[in-house]
Amino acid sequence: MEAAGKVTSIFVYPIKSCRGISVSQAPLTPTGFRWDRQWMVINNKGRAYTQRNEPKLALVQIELPNEAFLEGWEPTGSSYMVIRAPGMQALKIPMSKPCDIADGVSVWEWSGSALDEGAEASNWFTNYLGKSSRLVRYNAESETRPVDPEYAAGQITMFSDGYPFMLLSQGSLDALNKLLKEPVPINRFRPNILVDGCEPFSEDTWTEVRINKFTFQGVKLCSRCKIPTINQDTGDAGPEPNETLKQIRSDKVLRPGRKQRGKIYFGQNMVCKDNLTEGNGKVLKLGDPVFVLKKVTSAAEAAA
C-alpha cells in the first residue's frame, strides 16, 4: 500500500485558544496529544474564554520543557509551563498538579470541576485581558468529557472544542492560498496534524487512516468558526479566509443534497481507535507515513 502523504507538522495547544507549540513528536493519549488543551482561561462564571470573544489570547505564547514531549516523561518540582504575552512579565506555572478545585467550569456543552492554578495566574490573565479571569487545568482524575456520541461514541477529550485531533493537509492550505490576495499561515486553522503529499481536500474523504502504527477514524468534517479570520500575530480580525471558504467550502457547495446548516468546512476531526492507556511506543513523529485504509467518495458522503 502506498502512503497518501506524511506528517510534516505536529501542533499542541496547551492552553485553549492560546498559541500552539510545533513539536517533532508528541505522545498519544486517549484525549489527544499529551498536554493538548489541558488548560483553559475562564471568566468569573467559569465559562471558557476563546479567541472568538478574546482575540488577544492569540498573542499568548506557551513554552513547555522540551522533554515534556518525550514518551514517559513526568514533571518534577522544577518543571514549569512558561506563559508570555506582549507587555506582560513571564508567568511560570508548575507542571505538577495544583491542589485547589474550581467548580462550575464549563466549555461548550460540558461542565464540571477543574484544578485551579491559583492567584498569580488569575491576576496575570485578569491584567492581560482586562477582565476577571482564572487559569484552570483539566482534572482527569475526577472528570470525563465525552465527545459527541453521534459521531464517536466512547471517545473523550479535554478542553478542545469537540474532538481529540484535527488533521489538515498542506495541499488544502495551498489550494486556499492560491485564491486569497494575502496567503494565510497554517496557524489560522489550529490543526494538530499537518499532512503533505496528498491532493487538496483529500482528507475530507478519509474515514480511516493509519499513521505510524496507529489507526485514526475521521469522524466529521471540521466546521469553522471565526477564529481563522484572526491574525495570530496581531490578534486583529478581517473577513478572510472565511469569505473565500464560503465560496468553495460551504455545505451548499460541498453537500448540496444534505441539510444546509450555513457552515464552512476545512480539515477533518479525528479520534484514535487504539487503546492508548497502556504500553509504550504511543508517539507520533514528523515524517510518519499516512496510509488511507477507508474513505468515502466525496465530501458530500462524509459526516459533518
TrEMBL record:
PROSITE patterns: MOSC. InterPro entries: MoCF_Sase_C (IPR005302), MOCOS_middle (IPR005303), Pyrv_Knase-like_insert_dom_sf (IPR011037). Residues 133-293 form the MOSC domain. One of its GO terms (molecular function) is molybdenum ion binding. GO terms for biological process: monocarboxylic acid metabolic process. This is MOSC domain-containing protein. It comes from Citrus x changshan-huyou.
